[in-house]
Design a protein that fits this description.
Strand order of the largest sheet: 1-14-13-5-10-9
Helix content: under 10%
Radius of gyration: 43 Å
Distance between the termini: 109 Å
Order of helices and strands: HEEEEEEEEEEEEEEEEEEEEEEEEEEE
Structural class: mainly beta
Length: about 350
């Protein structure tokens, strides 16, 4: 056989091989399509940080999937297949996404490729799943953009169905530390600075017609305290050189008409906040003539054990006189009321 005939013979043989093989090659290429939507979210993007994450994809082809293979970017450290546990809890997935059918813990990790067993998927449906163990993936140790990977679905026999690439980034720090200061707050207000008890009679108990109030607002976690004292340990008259003495300072009492006495009763109104008001035993009021006597030393009227919004103390001053109590128009007392918060 001449050299030219041998060349022609080889060309014909090659053409026959191509004619036989090319239909299967074309079929394989035609069967693979691009996933129409791919999202791979890393729940942490900070370098050298372990992370969970989410994989979402929309199949384009009608075929029977048996697994999905996720290729993680070069430089990302992967754990064992057993560490790639999964969940199908919707963790802020893209709108319209459904749980990935039949997804289970990874069956294989080879290089950067993790294989997850999958159920059959419907073309055009967006599916998602999460890898739930942060030990499965560690972000690479350098901050870089466009770290690429891919997601691919396969049929039995490792036949590629659909695939698509994705890109992510690793950054120096993915967290924003938010700081703020809430300043300490304390307000303390008296509703008035006078308390006229009127003309006294030995036949009745005279009490504050409009009890003065203390209103407290504070953000002190430890609450607040209120104290009071008076200047005369009673109602004093310069003209009559007489003091209607405070009744047993430091102890609770109820006045009796016809007998001299003078005290201050406290009633609480809890507003908002975490605190609850407790009135000191000596100054518990609420009934006619009940309260405690004041003197020139500050005495605790009430406390609260937490924050307060419009906590109110009503202060009712009570007085009784006897038939022999000297007459005068200048009986007076000055009560000082102060408060403090526990921050």
């Amino acid at each position: 056989m001449t050299a030219s005939k041998r060349i022609i013979s080889r060309v014909v043989a090659a053409a026959m091989v191509i004619a036989v093989v090319s239909p299967s090659i074309l079929a394989s290429v035609a069967g693979a399509a691009s996933l129409s939507q791919v999202t791979v979210r890393f729940d942490r993007m900070k370098i050298s940080t372990q992370t969970t994450g989410t994989v979402c994809a929309t199949p384009a082809s009608t075929a029977t999937e048996v697994d999905v293979r996720v290729t993680y970017p070069t430089g990302y450290t992967l754990g064992t297949a057993a560490s790639f546990t999964v969940s199908t809890t919707n963790l802020s997935w893209p709108s319209g996404a459904v749980a990935w059918t039949g997804i289970t813990t990874a069956s294989n990790v080879t290089g950067q490729v993790v294989t997850f067993p999958s159920g059959d998927l419907t073309a055009g449906t967006l599916y998602c799943f999460n890898w739930a163990n942060p030990a499965a993936v560690t972000v690479k140790g350098t901050a870089t953009a466009s770290n690429t990977g891919s997601v691919a679905t396969y049929a039995t026999g490792a036949a590629l169905i659909d695939d698509a690439s994705y890109s992510t980034a690793s950054i120096a720090d993915d967290q924003i530390v938010v700081t703020a200061t809430v300043p300490q707050a304390f307000s303390f207000a008296l509703s008035g600075n006078t308390d006229p008890l009127g003309t006294l009679s030995s036949g009745a108990i005279a009490s504050s017609g409009t009890p003065r109030t203390v209103t407290i607002n504070t953000n002190a976690a430890g609450g607040w305290k209120v104290w009071a004292r008076d200047v005369s340990t009673g109602l004093a008259s310069t003209t009559a050189a007489k003091t209607i003495a405070s009744t047993t300072p430091g102890a609770n009492s109820t006045l009796t008409a016809g007998s001299e006495g003078y005290n201050t009763g406290v009633t609480p109104t809890n507003g908002g906040g975490s605190g609850t008001i407790t009135v000191a035993t000596a100054f518990v009021g609420g009934t006619s003539g009940r309260g405690g006597g004041l003197n020139t030393a500050l005495a605790s009227l009430a406390t609260s054990n937490g924050t307060a919004t419009n906590h109110v103390l009503s202060l009712t001053n009570n007085v009784t006189v006897a038939g022999a109590t000297p007459a005068a128009t200048d009986y007076t007392d000055t009560i000082t009321v102060v408060g403090a918060a526990t921050f």
